[in-house]
Amino acid sequence: MAVLGLGAALGIVAVYRDSLELDVRSPSFNPAVFVPAILALYGGWQALQALRAWRIVRRFGRSVFEMQGRAAHMGETLRGRILTSFTERPDDGFAVRLRAVEAVRIAETGSRRGTRTEDRIRHESVVRVVAAAPSVEGIPVAFEIPHVRAKGSLRFTLDVEARVNGAAYSAVFSVPAWEAPDPEEDAEEDSSEPGP
Q1: Can you list the domains of the chain with their CATH numbers?
Q2: Do 48 and 155 contact (CB within 8 A), yes or no?
C-alpha cells in the first residue's frame, strides 16, 4: 500500500506537472492539486507501519503461540506458551492479554446509508508474566476463557507486549475458542433419533 500511494502521488505530479496551479488566488487553481499530497501522506504512513513491523521481526524474530489442545471452549482454561527467538529479558516482564472481540454491524443513516463493521472489546484479562528465558522456556499462558454472549461474530485474541532494552515488542495471536456444545441438547438429539 505504501508503494501504491507514493507511486500514485508521483505519477499524478509527473503527468500533470505543467498544469498544476498552486496559487490559491489564481482562477485556474483546482483543489485536486492536494490529491497527490494526500496520497503521499497515506503512502508515507503505510511505509512507517511496514518499517515498524519489519524492525520488530528483525529485532525479536518471529513469535509463535503453542496451545495445548486444538481448540478451547468458553469456560475452560486456555493453556500454552508463547515462543520467541530473542534472549533478552524484558524490563518489566511481559503483559499478556486475552481479549474477546465482537464484530458489530452498524446501520448508517442519512447521506451515508449502508452498514459498517465495528470491533468492540467484550472482555479483557491482563496478566504480567516474568519469563526467565523467553526463547528457551517460552512465556507461559493460562487464562480462563469467559462465557461471552454476542450478537455479532466473536473472536478471541491473545496479545503480548513488553519493553526490551527500550524497544517495544508485541505480537497478536488468534485463539480458536467457541461456546461448548450443550450436553443436554446432545442427549435430546440422541433420544429423538429412532432406534433400529
Answers
A1: 2-59 (no CATH), 61-183 (2.60.40.640)
A2: no
